[in-house]
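Q: Focus on the shape:
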Amino acid sequence: MFERERTDPQTDIEFDFFDESPTVESSDRERPTPRRGPRMPSRPPGGGGGPQPSLFRLGILIAGAILLAVILVLWVNSCRSGQKKAEYRSYMEAVTGRASESEQVGKRLNQLITTPGIKLADLRDELDGLRQQSTQILASARKLEPPGPLRDEQESLVQAFEFRVTGLDGLAQAFAQVQSTKDAAEAGQRLSIPAQRLVASDVVYADLFNEGSRTVMNKEGVQGIPIPESKFVQNGDLASPTAWTLIVERLTRSPSAGGLHGSQIVSVIVQPGAQQLSPSEDNTVKASDRLSFQVLVKNSGESQETQITVSLTIQQSPQPTRRKQVIDLINPGETKTVVFRNLGPPSFGTRTIVKVNVDPVTGESNTANNTAEYPVIFTLG
């Protein structure tokens, strides 16, 4: 009988560990932790995609700041524009006072020269006063401070006033020699030279200051500020040596001397249309707001005449229309036109008389041609 094989206890090893199933606890403990990426920003409740409240408020603040900056810029520009306009206005108002005063000096000079029967000594005394007044105006004008762009125009203003002062000085010196000069033509020539300075002053003022200022202000965008005018010479004849010769003759002799004296009505012309009125036939005249009567007056004598009154009367009912104007100076053989405007509404469809009259001058003997009458019927068209 076979003997059972003995088993070595040291070799009884059971290889059953592959059959063991791990427990849940050991699996959780040994599983590696997964790596996570950057956390995405969470969206506001409701799933909306709008900006965050803080960004929205920031946008409002930025928009408000921009709007405030725009308003501030507009306000600053408005203030600068207003200040600029005020500067120009202040300057022009200052010029207006000087320009007006200087023009009054010119009117007074014209009045003196054309005053019938004025004495030479009285004229010279009055002229000295006008010289002093013009010198003061010039000194005052030199102190004006214009806006920067008007510096050249300011210099032209001063130059115009300088011409007026030197012109009056020259007249005063020439009149001082009239009594000692037997030749009226020579005296008239001397007087015409400073008189031309007075004429030049008007040219400088009108062209260089007035028009120059208007050009500058338009360029600078300054509107609505009036630029003053100033006309010193009231009668263009005062630049002529012939006119001054006649003035000397008139000042150095009696009003009744100097040959024939007289004036006459040459014609009456209706404007618009240049219709010459007939004294013997009915004249149909179209009335309008531009209606005017031009009365042509001639010096039919041999002497210079001054301060001649010309009148026009429309003899209509219920109220006649009367107007008067004055010719300050007219030389022998010269014809001047006196224009009557703004006559008011006429009486339509009714025959009326338009009468014109020229007052006789001193020493005038024939006054038959100093008055004329014209039958007129006014229509609307």
